[in-house]
Amino acid sequence: MTPTEFEEQDAILSGEELGVQNLPVHVGDDCIVSCWEPSKEELEEINRTGKVYLCVVGTTHAPLFLTGAKADLWPVEEGQAGD
Q1: Total-model pTM
Q2: 18-38: string of b/e by CB count within 10 Å (b at 16+)?
């Protein structure tokens, strides 16, 4: 998966110090949204298995929400994502 720019982005989280790609994001009142694009091979595997795996570096992380539909995200500032 590759982080990708998107219409609503309003910030970039720098990955230089960690040796990873920069991450385009939208910073809301109580969340940060990023957009990811699978490679052709990754999309074929997702279509085959119906699964996406998430790995968070560290020993804990905040609650999260994954979706393939941008309409599920806005207005994220009003706490409606995933409702």
Answers
A1: 0.78
A2: eeeeebbbbebeebebebeee
